[in-house]
Design goal:
The protein is mainly α. The relative contact order is 0.12.
């Protein structure tokens, strides 16, 4: 069974990609591939943050009505 990706894992992968790209050691082709993967990880993180924010807002709203 595959592990579910976490926010922390995706963020770490993004940090690693930035370090690799900043090193200047990647070929153009590899840099583009890393960039594409980084965009996917960024979208994953932003989506998860958005869902979490909505969940917290919902919980807070429910708590205020009680």
């Amino acid at each position: 069974m595959a592990k579910k990706k976490t926010f922390e894992t995706a963020l770490k992968e993004l940090e690693d990609i930035v370090k690799e790209m900043e090193s200047g050691d990647l070929s153009l082709e590899d840099a583009v591939k890393k960039y594409e993967f980084g965009i996917k990880q960024s979208k994953f993180c932003l989506d998860l943050l958005d869902k979490t924010q909505k969940k917290i807002a919902n919980l807070t709203q429910k708590d205020e009505t009680n």
